[in-house]
Amino acid sequence: MSLAQRNRGSYRDPAGLIYEYNGQIYRAIHRFGSTSYETVRNSGILSKAIDEGFLVDCIELPTTEWPAELETVSYVIEHPRLPYISYPYEWSFSQLKAAALHHLNFQLMLLEHGFKLTDASAYNIQFVGVKPIFIDLLSIAPYVEGEFWLGHRQFCEQFLNPLLLRSELGITHNAWYRGALEGIPTASLSKLLPFHKKLSWKVFSHILLPTRLERQAASSPEKAIARVKATGKFSKLAYAGFLTQLKNWISTLHPLDTGKTTWADYAKVNTYSDHEKNLKKQFVADFIAKTRPEFVIDLGCNTGDYSIVALEAGAGRVTGFDFDQHAIDMAFSRSYAEIADKTRFLPLWLDASNPSPDQGWMQQERMGFQSRSKANVLLALAFEHHLAIAKNIPLEQVVDWLLSLAPQGVIEFVPKQDSTVQRMLALRADIFEAYTLENFEKILTARANISAKLALSTHGRVLFCYHAL
Question: Structure pTM?
Answer without folding.
Answer: 0.91
